[in-house]
Design brief:
146 residues; mainly alpha; 3 helices
């Protein structure tokens, strides 16, 4: 136990007491890492790391300074992860939208192709009926001519 242990414990305990209601309130916010909850948690962590850094400087406590530095590094990594998650969500959403558009476009093309095929079938049926009718008429005329 050295000269810095008691003041370091006081800083750590004070920050824990200050954080408790903030952490509880943050827990009620929506959105885990990329939403308001994640942003609020990171803001609290940022303030915690800054206060620890300032206290370490004022008290000349290297252990507290290292703790503040580790917390800041961890915070930066969480912020990076949140940014990457946000980009991934955006990319996923865009891909989902493109996929839906492609499916809708393919559905429209299938519908159009089906309509065209039906129209061609109907036209072929009409031509066949016209040929049959013309053949019957020719047969009738030939029989009447004899």
């Amino acid at each position: 136990m050295n000269v810095h242990t008691v003041p370091r414990a006081a800083v750590t305990t004070s920050l824990a007491l200050l954080r408790a209601p903030l952490d509880a309130a943050t827990g009620l916010l929506p959105g885990e890492t990329t939403g308001p909850k994640g942003r609020a948690k990171r803001a609290i962590d940022r303030a915690d790391a800054r206060v620890r850094g300032i206290a370490a400087t004022v008290m000349f406590d290297p252990a507290l300074h290292n703790d503040a530095r580790r917390r800041k590094a961890a915070l930066m990594e969480r912020e990076r992860a949140a940014r990457l998650r946000g980009k991934a969500e955006t990319t996923t959403e865009k891909a989902r939208d493109r996929s839906e558009e492609r499916q809708e476009h393919a559905g429209r093309r299938r519908k159009q192709a089906s309509s065209q095929a039906n129209a061609k079938r109907q036209q072929a049926t009409r031509r066949r009926q016209q040929r049959v009718q013309a053949a019957k008429q020719d047969e009738q005329e030939r029989l009447e001519a004899n």
